[in-house]
Amino acid sequence: MAYKITDDCISCGACEPSCPNQAISEGKTVYDVNPDKCTECVGSFASPRCVEVCPVDCCVPDPDHRESRETLLARWKTLHPGETPKVT
Ligand code: SF4
Ligand code: SF4
Predict the structure, then answer these.
(1) What is the position in ligand 2's atom list of the atom closest to the CA of 50?
(2) Which of 6, 9, 59, 76 has its CA 20 to 30 A from that of 29?
(3) Residue 76: pLDDT band by 50, 70, 90 thresholds?
(4) 86 lies in a domain?
(5) Please, are residues 21 and 46 in contact by the beta-carbon 8 Å criterion?
(6) By residue range, what is the domain housing residue 73?
(7) Average per-residue pLDDT in the chain?
(8) Is position 14 within any domain?
(9) Does residue 72 fall inside a structural domain?
(10) Which tens digits make up the pLDDT trace of 10-35?
């Protein structure tokens, strides 16, 4: 499932460059995750990078976007044409 950013976000910006899919951007009040680009870091890393870098632990799984690993990997391949997944 895609991750989301809660209202606890302090807009430090650390997560934006850490996302391998450019899924994170600055929103009106807090940073946002684009669920069409988030793969839970499947394809790139063993665990979600945004979770690791966030100083206030506000990157959490979004229960409204539950997806299988196969779906997430297929998304990664669409976002990174011609590349080989580093983590499947
Ligand atoms: S889980 Fe990974 S792909 Fe999803 S928003 Fe966080 S860093 Fe980006
Ligand atoms: S790292 Fe955490 S606090 Fe900083 S902008 Fe991203 S979600 Fe917000």
Answers:
(1) 1
(2) 76
(3) very high
(4) no
(5) no
(6) 3-78
(7) 96
(8) yes
(9) yes
(10) 999 999 999 999 999 999 999 999 99
CATH for 63: 3.30.70.20
The structure tokens listed for 81 are: 């044409």
Which residues are near ligand 2 (CB < 6 Å)?
5, 9-15, 31, 53-54, 56, 58-59
Look up the pTM and report it. 0.95
Ligand nearest the Cα of residue 33 is 1
Distance CA(63)–CA(24), nearest Å, equals: 18
Structure tokens at 58: 């506000």
Domain count for the chain? 1
The token pair that represents 1 in the structure block: 């499932």
Q: Which pairs with CB-CB distance under 8 Å and at least 24 residues apart come from 47-50?
A: 48/3, 49/15, 49/18, 49/19, 49/20, 50/3, 50/5, 50/15, 50/18, 50/19, 50/24
Residue type, 80: H
Nearest to 6 by CA among 45, 80, 69, 63: 63
> Cα(84)–Cα(88) distance, rounded to whole angstroms?
10
